[in-house]
Amino acid sequence: MQNIRDLRKRIRSIENIRRITSAMEKIAAARLFRAKTSLANSKPYAAALEQIARDLLNSQPEAVYPLTVKNQDGYVLAILVTSDRGLCGGYNTRVIQKAAEFADTTGRDRVKFMALGRKGADFLRKHHYEILESHVNLPASLPRSYTEEIGRRVIDLYVAKEVSEVHLIATEFASIAIHIPKVRMILPVELSPEPGRNYMNYSYEPDPAAITTSILPRLVRTRVWSGVMESMVSEHAARMFMMERATKNTDDMIAALVMVMNKARQSAITRELTDIVGAAETMA
Are 192 and 265 part of one and the same domain? Predict the structure, then answer.
C-alpha cells in the first residue's frame, strides 16, 4: 500500500496540472470562437467574389490573363500552414504528412515551400526540403493584412513566371474533433462554368477586362486568407478538444488516487484499532 503522504502529493500535483489544462481549454475555446466568427463573416464576401470572377472569366472565353494561364517553367510553390505550438493532437502531424506526400508526388526537386507556423518550418528544415520563406510566431488573432502581404508576394512570383503553380496545404475544419488536411490550388485561377448558366447576358461597366484584372488578385488573396483562417480554426478546435480530454483524464486520475488514499487510511486505522484491542486484551 502506498504512503498516504505520497498520495496526497501526487493528488496535489495532478490538481495543478488540471488547473493548467482547464485554463488552456478555455483560452482555446475563446480563440476558436473569434476565429470562427471572423471566418464566417468573410465567407459571403469570398463566395460572391468567386462567383463574380467565374461570371467574368466565362463571359469572355477568348481573353487571357496572367493569373489564369499556367506557367510552363518555374517551380511549384506550396504554402504549408501549421501551428507554432503543440498540444493540439494530430493537427500538425496530419497536415505535415500531407505536405510530404504532395512533395513526393510532384517531385521533391520541383517543390519549394512557404511555411506558416513553426512546426511546419521545423519539419521542412529537418528533412531538408527547400524553404522559400518561413513565417513563425503568428499572432493568435491573425490580421487580414498579414495574409494579404503573403498573397501579394505569391502573385508577384507567379506574374514574374518564377512559379508554375501555387498550392495551399492547410487543414479544413469539419467539426470540433474532425479536421481534414487538404491541398488547394491557388494559382493559376481555374473557374469552370456552371452547367446550364448563360454567361453572355451581362453588361459590365467599365469593360469586363478592367474588372477581371482588378478582381483576380483579390480572389487569390482571399483564397489565401480563407485557407489560413480555416486552418487556425482547426488548430484552436484541436487544442480545445485535447485539453478537454486531458482535463477529464486528470479528473479520473484524481478520483482513482483518492480511492487508493482512502483505502490506505482505512487500512492504517484498522491496524491501529487492532493494536489497541490487542494491547487491551494483553493488559486484561
Answer: no
Answer yes or no: are the C-beta atoms of 78 and 157 closer than 8 Å. Answer: no
Q: Report whether 54 contacts 259 (CB < 8 A).
A: no
Question: What is the rounded distance in angstroms from the CA atom of residue 19 to the CA atom of residue 28?
Answer: 14
**Parent domain of 78:** 30-241
Residues 223 and 274 placed together within one structural domain of the fold:
no
- CATH number at 275 reads 1.10.287.80
**Both 148 and 251 in a single domain?**
no
**Angle, vertex CA 36, rays to CA 215 and CA 25, nearest 5:** 150
Write out the chain's pLDDT in tens, 284 residues: 567 788 888 889 999 999 999 999 999 999 999 888 888 888 898 888 888 888 888 777 777 888 888 888 889 999 999 998 888 888 899 999 999 999 999 888 899 999 999 999 999 999 999 999 898 888 877 788 888 889 999 999 999 889 999 999 999 988 888 889 999 999 998 887 776 666 556 677 777 888 888 889 999 999 999 999 999 999 999 999 999 999 999 999 988 888 888 887 777 777 766 767 666 667 65
- The pTM (predicted TM-score) of the whole model is 0.84
Q: Report the domain count for the chain.
A: 2
**Residue 56, exposed/middle/buried by CB under 10 A (0-12, 13-18, 19+)?**
buried
Judge whether 217 and 149 are in contact, CB under 8 Å. no
284, part of any domain: no
Integer Cα distance of 27 and 179 in angstroms: 19
Q: Are residues 147 and 20 part of one domain? A: no
Gap between the Cα atoms of 82 and 228, Å rounded? 9
